[in-house]
Amino acid sequence: MAIETPPATTPTIAPPEAPARPLPFDELRIVGHPLPKVDGLAKTLGQTKYADDLKLPRMAYGKLLRSPHQHARILSIDVSEAVALPGVLAIITGKDLPHKYGIMPVSQDEPALAIGKVRYVGEPVAAVAAIDEETAAEACRRIKVHYEPLPAYMTIEEALTKEGEPIQDYGDGRNIHKFVSYEFGDVEEGFREADYIREDLFFYQGNTHLPIEQHACVAYYAPDGKLTLWSSTQTPHYVHRELAAALDMPRSRIRVIATPVGGGFGGKSELFNHEVAACKLAMLCGRPVKIALTREEVFYCHRGRHPVLMKVKTGVKRDGTITAMHFQSYVDGGAYGSYGVASVYYTVTLNTIVQQIPRYKCEAVRVWTNKPPCGPKRGHGLPQPRYALEIHFDKIAHDLGLDVVDMKLRQAVRPFSRTVNYRRITSCALRECIEKVVEASGFRERHGKLPYGRGLGLAASAYMCGAGTAIYWNPMPHSSAMIKLDRGGGVALLQGATDIGQGSDSVMCYLAAEVLGVRVEDIQLLAADTDFTPIDLGSYSSRVTFMMGNAVVEAARKLRKILFEVVAERLGVPPERLTAANRRIFVRDDLTQFVPFDEAVQLAEARYGQLVAAGSYTPPKIYAPYKGSTVGPSPAYSYAACVAEVTCDPETGAVHVDKIWIAHDVGRAVNPLLVEGQVEGSVYMAIGEVLMEEQDFRRGLHKRPSLLDYKSPTAQEMPEIVTFLIENPDPEGPMGAKEAGQGPLLPVPPAVANAVFDAIGVRIDETPITPDKVLRALDNARAGKPARVGPERVPPVQFPPPIKPEVPPEWRHGIPRPEDYPDPASYTQYVGGSGL
Amino acid sequence: MMRLPPFRYFAPRSVAEAAALLAEHGPEAKVVAGGTDLYPNMKRQIQTPRVLIGLRGLPELRGIRGTARDGLVIGANTTLTELSQDPRVRQAYPALARAAGQVSTVHLRNMGTLGGNLCLDTRCTYYNQDYEWREALTFCKKRDGTICWVAPGSPRCWAVQSSDCAPVMVAMDARVRLVSVRGERVIPAAELYRHDGIDYLTKQPDEILTEVLLPPAEGLHTTYWKVRRRDSFDFPILGVAVALRRDNGTVRDARVVLGAVTSAPVLVEEARALLAGQPLTPELIDQVAVKARVDYARPLDNTDLTMTWRRRMSEVYVRRALRELAGLPVSEYDLPLKRPSIN
């Protein structure tokens, strides 16, 4: 008998049982322990096979010819000289791939190879397959493309004001992709109630993911008409869907396998041109085709952090209590949609989950520009407003002479509450995080008192544990797992999540091994294969531990129940007295009574036949009565706080981060070693963003598309990091776990900026904080001007009138008392299949 | 992946054989030692020699000979790691150890050689790019084109001399030996370089730089300060090398050299006159530092960070270098400032 999950469409409208923990924590033998990664040794020994390591018999090599123009009409493409080159196997252009695709259903705007016109330097125009890379590259050079240049728009301002043909022919206006406009509560009333109102402008520069592994893929079209794509991707499921659209082929004939990913950070989260091209070329030339991108090409793929210009106005009471906020963001999207619709929402919709904001007006616009498309990068859409807001509040505390720690604690959102824009907050250790870093760093004693040139800064943040809604609307699970037990004691775990270095393969093995009472090495894992592993939407929005973790735990618990049933009978004890660990199922208070795991499997298999179980996770539906409310809800939010200590050299303007204290509310650390690694990695990436990284362009070209010239920190720039994992188990997370991969990035950039102010009294209201900007701010101060460098104005944009949803009842009269919040169960609909 | 263009490779057994091969193959040929500069440039097709003459196997070019008292002789094949770790160099010529020890990363220092670093191709953000990037912009005059994107009106190329060791050699007044089938010559390091981003060496195409002759170290005080964004990996965007000879408290001879501000190391000539016969006082140091910025540092916008900032830093870092040699605190601010270190 196969044990199956009930159909996921059957809703069970009930909150999870409390406590929703499958195991008493004191019995956890794997979860919570610093075990090695399951794939660590192979990676360390150089034995892991990445996409570019794959080699199939008769394999050909593909190359893309890319646009040298920012914006131009394609008048003609002549491939005759390229075709004539010996060794060339196939050449394709836009007309061979007429179907556009896109990750968001509302932005199906990208051709695999340009059709009609090109929109950024580096956009693919043609693709060649040849017997080797040199021949393919030479063939690309022989393709003659005639272009008619069009006016190019390289900045938000240019896109909005310069005359000429717009970049895209759809969206919310000329060169405008998307508007967002809401008002929750009467902000004007809120400003009237304020004792103090402050307005600031900030700019957060674009930056890129910079994974060490460059994108690569191999496509194979088998004689039976089935297509297989091995690719370095974070989202095999979405690649599968989009590839079917791009190639106009049924998904049942396409298999996508995510190879081990050498870093993603959001940059491999959708279908890319080279993947479509490799598939099409493989189909045409009857050979497997590999395309491995150069570093430069990875910069042209981009999908990284959106440059965002922000204007924020906040009214506060004398003690820092917020009365109203008006937030505007101007988002530089690049040439295509990518995840942009979600990104632009994220720049405004989650600004309410850190500080309690009783009235909130937000306006955002995503603008097309002739640059590689921006998309999701670690922290997707949140680092920009976090930078603005945490500096803005630091300034407010300074203006009002308030203790910034006290103000932050006073403003902090409460656990098990709801925001004015209907974001459901469950477990929340924000206060604990703030208190921890403040205490450890001696912030209260040292802030404002260090010698000139040295300073401390504080900031706090929150992030999602997975998007509560899928990218394409559907009522099905977001993650599913299947476990098959072997009578020899082996455990096969099939699950669709993709390990991009964050450790999801390990986490899933730990969870399955914990519940089944086997060792981690007993688990055989098959991951991220659209033909053979159950669904997972992908490694994005910090969703995998939470969502796939719940699915794996559910599948494992089903099998545990059956094994306990047969073992209980054999030992003559009730199943409640049993527990499992170390390949034994034993009586909890009598270790001499046990059945080895493999024998238990054999007993169960004799009774039920093959032992297979599936688990699924569907996020709860969180009620919010307005259009657009589906971007931002998450089954849980992680919280973080950071104190940065810096030294600023007043003669050079150089900023050095000396030490970081960071506390992260992780719910529960499935593996504290890996969680600390995620926190440290986030700090690393954040330091690059705040001090160095710039996605900047010159004459339409990316200024520095190389690992040498695109400045990202080395180990030398890394400060000492003191990490505190705040374990405050989440009621819906697997064994209480929340996310760790993205949230810890968010508080670091503003903490560094606030520390620079504490050190030398200047505000750098735009990233990166480069030495020349620091010196300019010091010069401004000496000249009697504001000691600041940052944007001075916003472009002329007429936002549409805001949607004004009715605010939740508890917010009608300002900030609610804790007892005013309704029971979250009253506005949460749990859907069947969540493995709690 | 970016592929190397095809080339023929010769592995001569002696300098004479190498020189003969170089003469035979003419301008199509280049010598290669560590390859850390040349091979990446070849992948980007900014240098495309059809013939490479490998110097790695030449024992004559290895090793450090002599004594600090008489002046060391350093074979061109000495790796930057060997150089930075050699006790004689560290003790008697610390600026050279610092410069060599701060080139790029440890991996590249293990491969890269002193000769290669001194002959490093000049660099520019419009030049050190792949073929397609340069083609999209339209090629610059240093390779395949006619325009200089840094200074479009300029008749010359402004690519930047980015060697760490070059300004130190010029400051110390070291000499280099150049060997060809026509014979050999020894010239001062300063005369190896030219203020032209394309034709940046006076070394003839058929000449091989075989060794570097350091001056006697007695009374020599040297330092090197490297400015770059990151403490590893990056080329200098400013280098300040200083070599002083002092009698008791007064300066006998002083050479202050700026690296990475233009296409050749820049000797701050007036520093010598300003400092000669004087004690190294903070006031005098300030005077020299201001002079370096105002009259000598002319960076353009073709490396990392802004040219205004880099120019301003020439004053700050000349001051810091001289104050270090004077035994003064390097900055008026009492901060734990990073000091250049020998890696």
**Helix-and-strand structural type of chain A:** alpha+beta
- Strand-residue proportion of chain B: 15-25%
Which structural class is indicated by helix and strand composition of chain B?
alpha+beta
Report the mean per-residue pLDDT of chain A as an integer.
95
Net shape of chain A: globular
* Strands in their spatial order, largest beta sheet of chain B: 4-5-8-6-7
The number of helices of chain B is 12
Q: Which range does the strand content of chain A fall in?
A: 15-25%
Query: Helical residue percent of chain A?
Result: 25-40%
Strand order of the largest sheet of chain A: 3-5-1-12-9-10-11
Order of helices and strands of chain B: EHEHEEEHHHHHHHEEEEEEEHHH
Poorly predicted regions of chain B are none
Terminal Cα separation of chain A, in Å? 24 Å
| Main pleated sheet of chain B | 5 strands, antiparallel
Summarize the structure.
The complex is a heterodimer of chains A (836) and B (343). By secondary structure, chain A is of the alpha+beta class. Chain A is built from 19 helices and 34 strands.
Output the keywords.
heterodimer, A: 836 residues, alpha+beta, seven-stranded mixed β-sheet, five-stranded mixed β-sheet, 19 helices, 34 strands, disordered N terminus, B: 343 residues, five-stranded antiparallel β-sheet, 12 strands
Q: How are the SSEs ordered, and which strands pair?
A:
The complex is a heterodimer of chains A (836) and B (343).
Chain A: H1 40-44, E1 60-66, E2 72-78, H2 80-83, E3 88-93, E4 117-118, E5 124-130, H3 133-142, E6 144-149, H4 156-161, E7 176-184, H5 187-193, E8 196-204, E9 216-221, E10 227-231, H6 236-247, E11 254-258, H7 273-285, E12 289-292, H8 295-301, E13 308-316, E14 322-334, H9 340-349, E15 360-368, H10 383-400, H11 404-411, E16 417-418, E17 424-425, H12 430-441, H13 443-446, E18 454-464, E19 479-485, E20 491-495, H14 504-516, E21 523-527, H15 544-571, E22 578-581, E23 584-587, E24 590-596, H16 597-608, E25 612-617, E26 621-622, E27 637-648, E28 655-665, H17 672-691, E29 697-698, E30 701-702, E31 720-726, H18 748-760, E32 763-764, H19 771-782, E33 788-789, E34 828-829
Parallel strand pairs in A: 1-12, 10-11, 14-15, 20-21, 28-31, 32-33
Antiparallel strand pairs in A: 1-5, 2-4, 2-6, 3-5, 7-15, 8-13, 9-10, 9-12, 13-14, 16-17, 18-27, 19-20, 19-25, 22-23, 23-24, 26-34, 27-28, 29-30
Chain B: E1 8-10, H1 15-25, E2 29-32, H2 38-43, E3 51-54, E4 64-65, E5 73-75, H3 80-85, H4 87-92, H5 94-101, H6 106-111, H7 114-118, H8 131-137, H9 165-172, E6 175-180, E7 183-188, E8 208-213, E9 220-227, E10 238-247, E11 250-259, E12 266-267, H10 269-275, H11 282-296, H12 307-326
Parallel strand pairs in B: 1-3, 2-3
Antiparallel strand pairs in B: 4-5, 5-8, 6-7, 6-8, 9-10, 10-11, 11-12
Helix pairs in contact in B: 10-11, 11-12
